[in-house]
Structure formats: structure tokens, C-alpha cells
Automatic annotation (TrEMBL):
Keyword Transmembrane helix: yes
Pfam families: MAPEG
Top-level taxonomic group: Bacteria
Protein name: MAPEG family protein
The keyword Transmembrane belongs to this UniProt entry's keyword annotation: yes
Transmembrane annotation, as ranges: 6-24, 71-92, 104-128
Length: 129
């Protein structure tokens, strides 16, 4: 099974979980649009949005790495780090009494995956790696 497809499947299911969580909180606080002044709903919306902002680009970079025949272990490590980063970030931001270390780890790790993937792709594209 291709590496990117494996991790994209887990991330897609997590995306659905985040979506369903918003729906449940919307019902709970009776807010069909916006956050209705609910900190819990606002945080849930931001977790979902942040996931939507970062994961597609990162998966695309990982897919490019895989199709360029990058080292499979490196692709697995980067994809696993992305999955862990998004889980940790979602947990951290979802907490109303937020411990910033979860958010920082999640964002830092996600950005590292993007940067490392981008640089690796540049080397592969130039025929250096």
C-alpha cells in the first residue's frame, strides 16, 4: 500500500471526527452559524480549520516525495509525525484551559514536516538526492 494513502486515510477519518465534533457542539450550544459566543465551539472550529489549512498541502508534499521515490523510511517518519502532530495539536487547542505545549508541539512538528518535505523535494528535483 502506498505510504501517503495509508496516512491520508487516518487523517481523513480524523477530519471527519473533528467535523462531527463541531456538529455535536453546535447542537449543544444551539449555534448554527459562528460560535454563538461559546469558547468550546470556537476552539473546535479553529482545530478543524487549522487542520484544513495545513494537512492538504502537507499530504501533497508527502505524495510528491513518494512519487519521486524518496526514501520510504523518511516518508513514513514524516507522515507519522504529521499524524501525531495533528492529534496533539487538536487535543491541545480543544482544551478550554489550554496547555500551550501541545499546540506548540503540534504546529512546530507540522511545520517541520512541510519544511523537510519541501527541501527534500528540491534536492530530488535537482537530482541531488
Amino acid at each position: 500500500m502506498p505510504i501517503t494513502i495509508f496516512y491520508a486515510s487516518f487523517l481523513a477519518l480524523f477530519y471527519i471526527y473533528l467535523s462531527l465534533r463541531i456538529i455535536g457542539i453546535r447542537k449543544e450550544v444551539r449555534a448554527s452559524i459562528g460560535d454563538g459566543g461559546s469558547n468550546k465551539l470556537n476552539r473546535s472550529i479553529r482545530v478543524h480549520a487549522n487542520f484544513s489549512e495545513y494537512v492538504p498541502l502537507t499530504l501533497l508534499l508527502l505524495y510528491f516525495l513518494e512519487t519521486y521515490n524518496a526514501n520510504a523510511i523518511v516518508v513514513h517518519v514524516l507522515a507519522a509525525l504529521l499524524l501525531i502532530a495533528r492529534l496533539v495539536h487538536a487535543y491541545g487547542v480543544s482544551q478550554t484551559e489550554e496547555n500551550l505545549k501541545f499546540r506548540v508541539f503540534g504546529m512546530f512538528s507540522t511545520i517541520c514536516v512541510i519544511v523537510v518535505s519541501s527541501i527534500y523535494l528540491m534536492f530530488l528535483g535537482a537530482g541531488i538526492a
